[in-house]
Amino acid sequence: MTMPCLPTVIRACLFDLDGVLTRTAVVHAAAWKQTFDAFLERHDGPSFRPFDRVADYDAYVDGRPRADGVRTFLASRGIELPEGAADDPPDKDTVHGLGNRKNALVLAKIREEGVEAYPGSVRFCEVARAAGLRTAVVSSSANCRDVLIAAGIEHLFEVRIDGVVAAERKLPGKPHPDTFLEAARELDTAPDAAAVFEDALAGMDAGRAGHFGHVVGVDRVGQADALRRHGADVVVRDLAELLEEDAS
């Protein structure tokens, strides 16, 4: 029998979405680059310094709520924009306008190309559930449910705490631990009996800040050392590495 290789105290698994369960992190990075590069060229002129879809994405936007990602990246360039309103049009140079532009690009990409789940992650979730572990998705994305449905994996999770739920319940996003803590609460599981699965540095920080029992870093882009520095107990390239055959 195949079993999840986790500490024996773990009773629940809390999964990030983009980059952990689905191959959508690269779509988000490309959309952020297109959004920020167009803005920076308008703001700084033709000599602007482009958004780096690896370094800037990992440091400033990955795993964060959309508006927080806009603020954090622009602050790194010494730029401050008006907040605007949540329904600002995508062509408006406000925090929410840029965020909405990025979201429109992501949704268009998903509609055109679909969504693919990582086979190793699907297998791990199936094995975890068969072993009696509780499961939840914890994502900053407001499109989380649509992505889960498009990838055909919504049925694998009992609880979904995403950008929509976080806004309704006024939960601060990653790197704060509140969304993960809310998922554990809904699964009736203490944080020290829950494992966090994340590919984002902000998610690592959230997992450690919440004092969860186990924090798994998923390294899809070659940032294993950074994931460890931010609190990962173990780093894997794919969740299939955490499956083992029970010899009993």
Helices and strands in order, then pairings?
Blueprint: E1 2-4, E2 12-15, H1 25-44, H2 55-61, H3 66-76, H4 95-113, H5 119-130, E3 134-138, H6 144-151, E4 159-161, H7 163-169, H8 178-186, E5 194-198, H9 201-209, E6 214-218, H10 224-229, E7 234-236, E8 243-245
Parallel strand pairs: 2-3, 2-5, 3-4, 5-6, 6-7
Antiparallel strand pairs: 1-8
Helix pairs in contact: 1-4, 2-3, 3-4
In order across it, which strands form the biggest sheet? Answer: 4-3-2-5-6-7
Helix and strand string, N-terminal first? EEHHHHHEHEHHEHEHEE
The top level CATH class name of the largest domain: Alpha Beta
The fraction of residues assigned to DSSP E strands is 5-15%
Cofactor: Mg(2+)
Keywords: Carbohydrate metabolism, Hydrolase, Isomerase, Magnesium, Metal-binding, Phosphoprotein
Family: Belongs to the HAD-like hydrolase superfamily. CbbY/CbbZ/Gph/YieH family.
Protein name: Beta-phosphoglucomutase
Q: Any overview of this molecule?
A:
The N and C termini lie close together (8 Å). This protein has helices at 25-44, 55-61, 66-76, 95-113, 119-130, 144-151, 163-169, 178-186, 201-209, 224-229, and strands spanning 2-4, 12-15, 134-138, 159-161, 194-198, 214-218, 234-236, 243-245. It is of the alpha/beta class and 248 residues long. The chain contains 10 helices and 8 strands. The strands form 2 sheets. A 6-stranded parallel beta sheet has the order 4-3-2-5-6-7. Strands 1-8 form a two-stranded antiparallel sheet. It folds into 2 domains: 2-23 and 116-245, HAD superfamily/HAD-like (Rossmann fold, 3-Layer(aba) Sandwich), CATH 3.40.50; 26-113, no CATH class. The longest helix has 20 residues, at 25-44.
